[in-house]
Structures are given as C-alpha cells and as structure tokens.
Specification:
Helix content is 39%, strand content 21%. The chain has 627 residues and is α/β, with parallel strands linked by helices. This is Long-chain fatty acid--CoA ligase.
C-alpha cells in the first residue's frame, strides 16, 4: 500500500499530513486524561498548531539546526509534539528509556551534548534535577507534568510544558518565517535522531539515523504491509526504541492511521478493550503471557473444556494452513466456543499484531494464527532503522522473520571463513532458496550513518563493502530468513560443541510453570538452566496442595515443587539433541526485570549480568549435580 502522502524527509511527512487533513477533523492521536476517563482524540489541525508553537519555543531557547534535544518520557502525545517540532526545525531527537537510572541518563546527555531536556513525570524530573549540574550542555529542563515536589519548580532551569507552549504561541508570529525556511532546508541526509543502544554489555552507543534511513524503511514497509486511514494503533512499546519509532509511529502516520497511547505497559490489556485497535506492535513477551494465561485457564478447567480447546486449536491451525470446506464450518464453531473470547479481550477489531525485538516462539505464533489473530513477525536492528525483513499478512511462516524488504539486501556470511554464501535483495526475490547457517549482514539505505563520535565502533560494525554485521546467526529457508541466535550468546560445551541457547529457551516458554529461563553451560559437560517460575501458577498449586511456606525461597525448595520442574525439564528436553538437553536446573526466587538489571529496556536478557548475579547457583549445579 502506498503512503497517503509523498515525502522524502520526516519534516515533509508531518507537513504533508497536516496539509492533507486540514479542516477534516481527522484524528491523529488519542490519549486518556485520567484512568477512568474515555479516550480523548486530537485532530491534525490541533497537532499542527501545537507543533508550530513548540517549534517557536525551541527556537526562542536557542535550538539551532543540528542541535540535540533529549526526551525522557513514556509514550504520550507530548513526546510526539517534541519530536515533530524538532523535525520541523532541523533538531535531533535524543530519546532515553524511562527505566534508565540517573547515572545512565547523565552519560547519554553528556555524550550527545543535548541542549534541552524534556521529561515526563516527577520521577523523571527528579533524575534531571540530580544530574543537571554535571551536564554542562543542558540549558533547560521542561517537565510535561507538574511535579508533586514544589521545590523542583523553584529551580530557574525548570519550565512546565504548558508554560512552554504558551510562550511558544506568543513567539510564533515572530519566528514563523524562520520555521518555514528551516523546514525547507532539511535534506534526506540530515540526522533525524540519535538512538542509544540499550546493549547487554558496555556503554550505550548513539546510533545516527538520517531522514533517508528512516523514510526508506517506512516506504519499504508500506510496500509489504497494508496500513491505511481506517487503522488504529495502540502504542505502548518505548518510542525511544527504533521498532516502535519507525513501525508504530512514523509508518502509522504515513498510512493515515490513528495512534492511541496506552496509559502504561501494565494497562495494555485494559486499554485494548477501550481503544479497539486494529494494529498492535509488541514484543514476544506479551504474546507469551497471553498464551500462558489461556492455557492455564484450560488446564484448570474440566476435561470437557480441555477437549474443546484442543479441538479448537486443531481446527484453527488447519484453517490457518488454508484448509476449507468442512473446516470452514468447524472454524465458526471454534470461534464461538473458544476464540471469540480472546478476540474480545483485544478490543475485537485486530487486523494483525506485529512482533519484533526478539524471536517469537513458533508454537505461540501458531496458536494466535489458529485463533484468527495474525502476527506479522519482523527482524532488524536499531542500526538498520530497524526493519530488514518481515512476514506479510496471509503469508506468515512461523519460525521465520519473512522476506527481505524492498531496497534492502541481506546476506549470509559463513562463520568459518567469512565467505558470503548468498545475498538476497527485496526486489529480485527467489522464494525457494535455502542456505547454510551464518552471520546475517545488511546493506541498503536503511543502514545507519554510524555511531555518534565513535568511528572505531562504526568501522567494526560496517565493513568496506558497506555491509553491516548484525552479530546474529541465521539462514534462509524457502527464501525467508530464520534467526538462530546471537553469535556472542553461543555456548561452547566441554566437548567443543557449539550450542545456541535462544531456540532452547524459546522451547520452554510454552510451559505454564516457567516464566523465564536462561541456559548456562559454557565449557561444562552438559547444559543446565536458571529458571524463574511462574509464581502465580506456583502459588495456586501450593494453595491446592495445602502447602505451608514462609517465603518464595522456601516454596521453590519444596520437594514437590522441585519435582514439577524436573518433570517439565525432562518432558521438554525430549525435543532437543543430546548435547542441547537441559540436565539440571536451579529455581530463582526473583523475576528478571529491567529495574533489577537483568533485562534491557527491550526485555532482552543480559546474560552476563544474570550469570554474575546467580553465579553461586551455577557453581552449585556443576559442582554438586549427579548428572
């Protein structure tokens, strides 16, 4: 599907959308003013006025073309206003994850030399207050929400966003011509944003993405995926991540879709029923949780309920695979008995989900497909703006991330001798090609300009042929890319066997007893695992069994509980090769979270942190196990 307006820069995207929808009352964004209030829509005329007034404020505060401005905020309308105003006057958006501690915010602000700092809540303003004196380039902090702590407002460098907008509205007539001239001067090769990689090791690096990088990705995605003016997207993944930025924000606007902001990640289930979106961007963790809730409900039900559920799954899968005739009639009954309830929980209007950020376990994707809730899985990196490949609606192959995007070339480089065994482009695309496994490389207009102030890291990432080295291992299967794991995650056991933990971990994600699992076994004679139980399922079991315990630590060490996990490990490991089988495990009493440091803001496991933090458990496994 073509975009609803033509554009070569993000500046033109905004301007042409504002012109197209002027006077039409077309909704651009929607937000909830309060948790118990209905969604409040914001039309394009209001957006255009707000963006121009904020642009005037930015100019008044000395923001020049090429200056960096930082945003520390959850997804909300104000975030979009700051971004669009920056694109209008040639500023560069530097966005930070709200989960970052003050010290990491300080590093990014110093490294980017950001001039202004927009923050959302009082919690984020407190971080800004803590580090302001150590960030020499920051001249002013603008808070979206009025903080509970009044003393912050007494600081001369703090403004409220509402006051900034009023000031900008007054200043706008004087700088209107300057805004027009600046917007005309913005070129596709100009920097649009610095996105700092969350990374699982080392200091974050600022990925320099130009207007051309992002615009090429938007247009390519629209050639494969239909996003139109009747669509509504629920936005909750962090906008400082390139997946949500490109796919859930710019690509939605380019299709004329409405963007509804979730109140928070915790309220997504509630907000889906209120917003009734047609498209939702998510990471696999959401689908895993929904799947486990559904299967848990079935497990706790009667034998008849289980049989109906298993029958409905079988019918749904056959229908998804293209079978019709009698299956069509059975699918209608399966929907009525099982799947319609699940669809109602998503708002009842979902056309498709998009999954990115990590691998989606094939069994979970297949379940949703059978339910009639299609999931388009894609793949890419922040450094590729981010999309390199994606499945298309009606042609989803679970276990793959689909075909290469138009304009992009993806190559497979053999790990042993660095030879490129194949390179597929999005234009001339064979569907039958299979390849051996190797590192995934990417070339195209979506590949970043480089890392901010870090030429060494840039040259390590992009070779002399222009190929960006992803660090991921994969292969083409029938012309669709299949991801194995990260090269650096590869485990070499004591026998010299190379083992990728990702597919093993994905296998266990369908267990109702397991919330998170990390495979360990570097230079060891066998594989083992650290397991975070599904605590809700475990506590329900303990209640049913009349078990008494003083803490979670006591509960997970109960022999009956240990037996459950021994059985799960044994059952699931049957599907693995001998050297991949999990032979032993230890249960962990705390969930891996962003706040506690074991997960990145995009919910990827920081393996080194987990192995360091729970090194005593790993040592106990291999020193005391009888395996």
């Amino acid at each position: 599907m073509p975009t609803v307006v033509a554009f070569e820069t993000l500046t033109e995207l905004f301007q042409n959308l504002a012109n197209k929808y002027r006077g039409t009352d077309k909704t651009a964004f929607a937000r909830k003013p309060a948790s118990d209030a209905p969604y409040e829509t914001i039309n394009w005329d209001q957006v255009s006025e707000d963006v121009h007034h904020l642009a005037a404020f930015l100019i008044e505060k000395g923001v020049e073309s090429g200056d960096r401005v930082a945003i520390l905020s959850e997804n909300r309308y104000e975030w979009a206003l700051v971004d669009l105003a920056l694109q209008l006057i040639g500023g560069i958006n530097v966005s930070l994850y709200t989960t970052l501690p003050a010290g990491q915010c300080e590093y990014i602000l110093q490294d980017s030399e950001a001039k202004l700092f927009f923050v959302s809540t009082g919690i984020q303003l407190k971080k800004a207050h803590e580090i302001f004196d150590r960030c020499d380039d920051i001249q002013r902090v603008i808070a979206f929400d009025e903080p509970n702590i009044e003393r912050f407002l007494d600081e001369p460098y703090v403004n409220l966003f509402e006051d900034a907008m009023i000031e900008g509205a007054k200043r706008f007539p004087e700088v209107e011509e300057e805004i027009k001239q600046r917007s005309k001067s913005i070129a596709p090769e100009d920097l649009a944003t610095l996105i700092y990689t969350s990374g699982t090791t080392g200091k974050p690096k600022g990925v320099m993405l130009t207007h051309r990088n992002i615009v090429s990705n938007i247009k390519a995605a629209h050639q494969l995926i239909n996003i139109n003016q009747d669509d509504r997207c629920l936005s909750f993944l962090p906008l400082c991540h390139s997946f949500e930025r490109t796919a859930g924000y710019y690509a939605m606007l380019a299709g004329g879709a409405e963007i509804y902001y979730a109140e928070s990640v915790d309220t997504v289930a509630k907000n889906m029923t209120e917003a009734s979106p047609t498209i939702v961007m998510s990471v696999p963790r959401l689908f895993e949780k929904i799947y486990n809730l559904v299967t848990k409900s079935v497990e706790e039900g009667s034998a008849v309920k289980k049989k109906i559920f298993e029958w409905a799954q079988s019918v749904g899968q056959k229908y998804a695979d293209g079978e019709r005739g009698l299956i069509t009639m059975q699918k209608k009954l399966a929907d009525k008995l099982v799947f319609d309830k699940l669809k109602e929980r998503t708002g009842g209007r979902i056309r498709f989900f998009v999954s990115g950020g990590a691998a989606l376990p094939a069994e979970i994707g297949t379940f949703f497909m059978g339910a009639g809730l299609n999931i388009i899985e894609g793949y890419g990196l922040t450094e590729t703006s981010p999309i390199m490949c994606c499945n298309t609606l009606g042609n989803e192959i679970m276990g793959t991330v689909g075909r290469v995007l138009p304009g992009v070339t993806v190559a497979i480089q053999r790990l042993e001798d660095s030879e490129i065994v194949t390179a597929l482009s999005g234009e001339d695309y064979p569907t039958s090609i299979d390849t051996e496994q190797g590192e995934i490389l990417c070339k195209g207009p979506n590949v970043m300009k480089g890392y901010w102030k870090n030429d060494e890291a840039t040259h390590e990432m992009i070779d002399n042929e222009g190929y960006l080295h992803t660090g991921d291992v994969g292969k083409f299967v029938d012309g669709k890319l299949q991801i194995t794991d990260r090269i650096k995650h590869m485990i070499v056991n004591a026998g010299g066997k190379n083992i990728y933990p990702g597919p093993i971990e994905d296998l266990f994600k369908t267990s109702k007893w397991i919330d998170q699992l990390v495979v360990v076994g570097e230079r060891k004679p066998y594989m083992a695992a650290l397991i975070v139980p599904d605590f809700e399922a475990l506590e329900d079991y303990a209640e049913d069994e009349n078990m008494t315990y003083g803490s979670i630590s006591e509960l997970i060490n109960e022999e009956r509980v240990q037996k459950i996990y021994r059985n799960e490990i044994h059952s699931y490991s049957k599907e693995l090769a001998s050297h991949e089988k999990i032979r032993d495990f230890r249960l962990v009493s705390n969930e891996f979270t962003v706040e506690s440091g074991e997960l990145t803001p995009t919910l990827k496991v920081k393996r080194r942190i987990v192995e360091d933090k729970y090194g005593h458990l790993i040592e106990d496994i291999f020193s005391n196990s009888k395996v």
